[in-house]
Amino acid sequence: MATVELRFSAQPEHVRTARLVAAAVARRAGVDEAVLDEVRLAVGEACSRAVGLHHSHGVEAPIRVVLTEEEKLFSIEVGDEVPGSGGGAAAVPGVRGPGPDEELDDSGEDEMGLAVISGLVDDVEVTSGASGGVIRMSWPTTPASVLP
Fold it and tell me: What is the pTM assigned to this prediction?
């Protein structure tokens, strides 16, 4: 299992770098070329959401992006350090998240970003806790072809 970890200050201009790194690592991991645009867009949405949450809550900590290559799966986790930031995920079809008793973000921006991500990625999981939230997305990989 290979893992790449990226941390960046919560500035919008760093989201592009995170997208480029994610696409490069996904390509190396064996994610289908036709899906790489979806990887870029989903990571961009997740990172933009995390940057927005950090700004709106005055959090100075960096955004965490963990890219993991497993045998037949490539996953990306985008983490923020805003307590309870996974709110709204339960309202988005196809996204597993906090239960119905969780408080939703009143701006609706969280729900929109999560809806976009769930439209791009089949396997999405949103979790949150006292130390922040994580959006975990994964894609299948194809094994590298073996030359005779």
Answer: 0.81
